[in-house]
Design brief:
The protein folds into four domains: 3-43; 47-155, Tumour Suppressor Smad4 (Sandwich), CATH 2.60.200; 158-247 and 370-399, no CATH class; 283-361, no CATH class. 29% of the residues lie in helices and 28% in strands. It has helices at residues 3-15, 21-43, 157-169, 175-192, 220-228, 257-261, 290-299, 333-339, 371-379, 384-391; strands at 47-51, 59-64, 69-73, 76-79, 86-92, 95-99, 104-108, 111-115, 121-128, 134-137, 139-145, 148-155, 203-204, 232-235, 246-247, 283-289, 323-326, 329-332, 347-351, 355-361, 369-370, 396-399. A hairpin with a 2-residue loop joins strand 3 (69-73) and strand 4.
Length: 400
């Protein structure tokens, strides 16, 4: 019997000898119900997301609409904001000062807006440094960390996922694509829930985790797609959460994780993708001087780089290759991509006596789901599970 059941059932039975058998059975049943609902509550907990995580916030304004929140300062209720109220919060001497439109409310260590009902939202406007306002669902906790104001969005999983999908995938796709993207976002959450736990939150709002710019408001299909896939995640053959990788456009072939990251994942192999090749990000070009290219190769220890004939710089890639080679010298395509700030590592090279042109395909690292390919698949009738299993080989989509 699992340890959790030993602790839950056997210990209480031995400590309650004065009860008869029927009463003990009732007690065990009651404990089981408590255990069951506690498990459900744990799985339904809101996720904590650090907002403006890379910004050294010193002053923010938080606005609310309607009588929908309780303002707690150091765990005590200070205010019930009225319609269109706002709080001006500043960091002074490692504490938070707060005032509303009428008066100062005091100085505290922690400030919270706790929702009094569902489907509520608030607005955050960074004042120092100045940033654009954003709306967020559910609640927020404000504190001090690393000499800056820390903003933690206490948000339900599905509201967060909808916001991520809107930020990562745009607003002009179909429901089946948004379902696929939602499952990848949820899989990432479940696989990385403890990523920032030592800092007091689960995930941040930058690309270091998943891009998150606030509540999804621009296309209602996104929220509906997220809710319709509630609890669904993608796992590999060992029932582990997959690396939920995606990119804008693969240029016709996705990249394997082994080539991109030196990490072998059986479900992240190169896949031929005819669906994305007519999309906006499928082709690109960048031109530099041949002299700059010679110097670049010289700095990377290519022999006699300054004397190599320009025609020998040419290369045609019809599939993704890992290394650019001239005789016995080589350089990873992904390093060239980084050094020249190219859109992808999938490119050919065409040189003249004076100029060298990178003729590229795709946008991004190329691993996992190609977003523009997936969008096209959804438009011609593929379902979300067919999209995911096309790009991630041998995975299963399961309910958590």
């Amino acid at each position: 019997m699992p340890n959790c059941f030993r602790n839950t059932f056997i210990t209480p039975v031995y400590s309650l000898k004065k009860y008869n058998r029927k009463e003990l059975i009732k007690i065990q049943g009651f404990i089981f119900i408590l255990f069951f609902f506690n498990t459900l509550n744990t799985r339904a907990q809101k996720i904590k997301i650090s907002l403006f995580n890379e910004v050294p916030l010193q002053t923010v304004v938080i606005g609310v609409a309607g009588n929908s929140y309780s303002l707690l300062c150091d765990s005590l209720e200070i205010d019930r904001p009225s319609n269109d109220d706002a709080y001006y919060i500043s960091l002074i001497d490692n504490n938070l000062t707060i005032r509303n439109k009428q008066k100062p409310l005091g100085t505290f260590h922690q400030i919270q807006l706790v929702p009094l009902k569902s489907n509520v939202f608030f607005t955050v406007t960074p004042v120092s440094p100045k940033k654009a306002s954003r709306q967020y669902d559910d609640g927020i906790t404000v504190s001090v960390a690393f000499k800056r104001i820390s903003l933690i969005n206490d948000i339900s999983e599905n509201n967060y996922i909808a916001g991520v999908v809107e930020a990562e995938a745009g607003i002009n796709a179909t429901s089946e694509f948004y379902k696929a993207q939602s499952i990848l976002a949820r899989t990432y959450i479940y696989g990385h829930r403890s990523k920032h736990i030592s800092e007091g939150f689960n995930l941040c709002d930058g690309v270091h985790c998943q891009a998150y710019k606030g509540r999804a408001t621009k296309n209602p299909v996104i929220s509906k797609a997220t809710l319709s896939t509630n609890g669904l995640v993608a796992v590999d053959s060992d029932s582990s959460y997959i690396i939920a990788a995606f990119h804008a456009n693969c240029g016709g072939f996705t990249e394997s994780s082994q080539n991109a990251w030196l990490s072998i994942k059986n479900y992240l192999v190169s896949v031929k993708d005819p669906f994305c090749q007519n999309s906006p990000a499928a082709r690109w070009e960048k031109t530099i001087s041949v002299e700059d290219w010679r110097n670049y190769l010289k700095n990377h220890n290519f022999k006699n780089a300054t004397k190599i004939a320009y025609i020998d710089f040419n290369v045609v890639n019809t599939e993704r290759n890992q290394f650019y080679r001239i005789k016995n010298d080589s350089l990873p395509y992904k390093q060239i991509r980084t050094d020249f700030e190219l859109k992808s590592s999938f490119f050919s090279i065409s040189a003249t006596a004076s100029n060298l042109t990178f003729q590229g395909r795709g946008y991004g690292h190329g691993v996992g789901m190609c977003q523009e390919g997936a969008m096209q698949m959804s438009k011609i009738g593929y379902k979300y599970d067919e999209i995911l299993t096309y790009y991630f080989k041998g995975i299963n989509i399961i309910k958590q």
